[in-house]
Amino acid sequence: MLTVVVGGRSLLGSLSNNLLGAVKTTHEVIPRLHYNSIFSQQQRTFIQMRTNLKVVDNSGAKRVMCIQALKGRRGARLGDTIIASVKEAQPRGKVKKGEVVYGVVVRAAMQRGRCDGSEIKFDDNAVVIVNKQGEPIGTRVFGPVPHELRKKKHLKILTLAEHIA
Fold first, then answer.
1. pLDDT truncated to tens, each residue of the chain (165 aa)?
2. Helix (H, G, I), strand (E, B) or coil at 6
3. Rounded-to-integer distance, Cα 22 and Cα 14, Å
4. Which UniProt keywords apply (predicted)?
């Protein structure tokens, strides 16, 4: 019987010995797994429906929620276009709260392999708001932007970016 112990207490509780009836000893060898090693590693997945993303341009939106990823069944990755709803916006911006907008994913927490064998991942999920033609609405892009956007034909976003990673 393997019992996971978190903080010195069994997850099965005191009923584990009564229900199973097989364990009669008072000293068991139980592998101790630390709470940090089990629960702190959040699974990094695709950007999918209801994912909140930070907006990193000066279009007026601060935070958007993904409605649909336009490419792929599983979700969006770096450089993919999504449809999103604006959840927070600045008072006098070009984009208002509640609007449905298009966005290009410029930072994703999910790892992405590069051609040279290295991998890139970011701390947050971020998006740049674009129009239907794929041109950015804002005039500045804040923070690092990966050079993989060049392959996805988002050159205008790369020219507006402060730092290319």
1. 322 333 444 444 444 444 444 444 344 444 454 555 545 556 677 888 999 999 999 999 999 999 999 887 788 889 899 999 999 999 999 999 999 999 999 999 988 888 888 988 889 999 999 999 989 999 999 999 998 888 888 899 999 998 998
2. strand
3. 14
4. Ribonucleoprotein, Ribosomal protein, RNA-binding, rRNA-binding
**Contact (Cβ atoms closer than 8 angstroms) between residue 127 and residue 82:** yes
Q: How far is it, in rounded angstroms, from Cα 96 to Cα 74?
A: 29
Pairwise CA distance, residues 162 & 145, whole Å:
8
DSSP 148: G
In the numeric block, the tokens 């069944």 are attached to 73
The backbone torsions φ and ψ at residue 153, rounded to the nearest 5 degrees and listed phi first, read 65, 35
Measure the CA angle with vertex 141, ends 137 and 145; round to 5°.
120
Return d(Cα 66, Cα 49) in angstroms, integer: 5
Element (H, E) at 54: strand 52-55
Distances (CA, A) of 41 to 34, 44, 76, 122, 156: 12, 9, 21, 15, 35
Structure tokens at 53: 């993303």
